[in-house]
Amino acid sequence: MANTLGGINLQVIAQDSLTTLLAQFPLVNKFTTDFGGDILQRGESVTTRIASGVAATNIGSSGYVRSNVASTAKTVTLDKHKGFVMGFSDGEVAKGGYDVLRRTFIRPAAHAVVKAVMDDVFLLATNGNFSATGYNGTVAAFDADAVADISQSLTDANVPMAGRTLIVRPSLYTSLAKDNSIQAQYASGTNAPLTENLLPRIHGFEVNQYTALPNGSMGTVNGIDFSVLDNNLKGIAVSPEAILIAARLPATPTNWYGNVATATDAESGLSIQVREWYDGDAGEQKLSMSILYGVTVGNASCLTKIIAS
Fold first, then answer.
1. Tally of CA atoms within 13 A in the half-sphere of 203 that contains its CB
2. Which residue of 30, 73, 191, 222 sits 20 to 30 Å from the alpha carbon of 284, by its own alpha carbon?
3. Alpha helices per DSSP H over the chain
4. pLDDT below 50 — which residues of the chain?
5. Do 302 and 239 touch, CB atoms closer than 8 A?
6. Number of C-alpha atoms within 13 angstroms, CB side, residue 125?
7. pLDDT digits (tens, 9 = 90+) for 30-70
8. Predicted local distance difference test score (pLDDT) of residue 2
9. Cα–Cα distance, 106 to 101 (Å, whole number)
10. How far is 174 from 182, CA to CA, in rounded Å?
11. 72 Cβ contact list (under 8 Å, min separation 6)
12. How far is Cα 77 from Cα 42, in angstroms, rounded to an integer?
């Protein structure tokens, strides 16, 4: 017979977990995503497509002559089923109920899941996958002019202006925030760089800082070998089609004594699965939150690395 968490609604926990997860997952929408509603097993794959780059023609001289367009099929293998598991003693459940679960489990679990996915995304930012380096210099010299050069390098590679994003470590974000030309944007109607440390769009890029952005100097952490990355990788300049992320609903276990709930975001289609069961040997009520996903390289010209020391 399935156990319950002291009358707690597992579906409520699942939805609250998803809400917290999405609140901490703002970087996912900077890439191309495919979050379908199908139920799949680990190891299965999803096929999506990306458009190849195009160039404008001189209609004034050659007329309305059509140009060929092409798309490339990309297969994303759902080879990663990651999550977070926590156990609560009988006493903790009895005393704290849902408040304990919310405070102790949901936010740390969501953060762990977010970091796991983003680690796998950034692990693709190797020289072999993305050869271009948009900036290679010092942290202190990273300013609006450097961003302008990065923008030009992407434009030269026929990368669309729409959806461009800088994802950088806080040191580079701070360097941009100190740039007088950026701080002076109060003249155009915003003082957010000074009052809120929020940077506006810079040369076509939305600027995001990400504290946990990995680099090669980290070595191996929790079984993940980050040495494939440059030791001084401090960020990336990216257009959505550079990296593809696919996720599907994990299969529900059968002939199992625990409870399972799923929460799906109606807008993005992202789903998480929450399981609950009682471990009689340990005297613990256990909860897991997990996501089934895969990542792969999309259009290699749509990402350039930011190297800084």
1. 18
2. 222
3. 10-23, 59-62, 90-101, 107-122, 144-156, 170-177, 180-183, 192-195
4. 1-3, 187, 194
5. yes
6. 31
7. 898 888 777 777 767 777 666 555 566 566 676 665 655 55
8. 44
9. 7
10. 11
11. 49, 50, 52
12. 8
Please identify which residue in the block is written with the tokens 């030269």. Answer: 156
Q: DSSP code of 251? A: P
Q: Report the pLDDT value the prediction gives residue 1, as an integer from 0 to 100.
A: 39
How much is the pLDDT for 106? 82
Of 85, 84, 82, 51, whose CA–CA distance to 68 is shortest?
Answer: 51
- 110, two tokens: 């969501």
SS3 of residue 243 by DSSP: strand
Token pair of 74 as six digits: 């990309």
Number of residues assigned to the chain = 309
Of 126, 156, 127, 124, nearest to 298 (Cα)? 124
Across the chain, the runs of DSSP E, i.e. the strands, are 32-40, 45-51, 71-77, 80-89, 133-137, 165-168, 206-209, 220-221, 224-225, 233-238, 243-250, 259-264, 271-279, 284-297, 303-308
* Residue 294: both structure tokens together: 């895969």
As given in the structure block, the two tokens for residue 97 are 């109920």
Cβ contacts of residue 307 below 8 Å, gap of 6+?
Answer: 133, 135, 136, 137, 230, 232, 233, 234
Residue 132, amino acid: A
Q: What are phi and psi of 58, to 5 degrees?
A: -85, 90
Cβ contact 55:264 at 8 Å = no
CA 294 to CA 304: how far, in whole Å? Answer: 21
Q: The tokens of 82 are what?
A: 């990651």
What is the amino acid identity at position 295? V
Rounded alpha-carbon distances, angstroms, from residue 121 to 118, 126, 143, 161, 229: 5, 11, 25, 22, 12
Alpha helices in 165-220 (DSSP H): 170-177, 180-183, 192-195
Give residue limits of the domains in the chain: 138-242+300-308
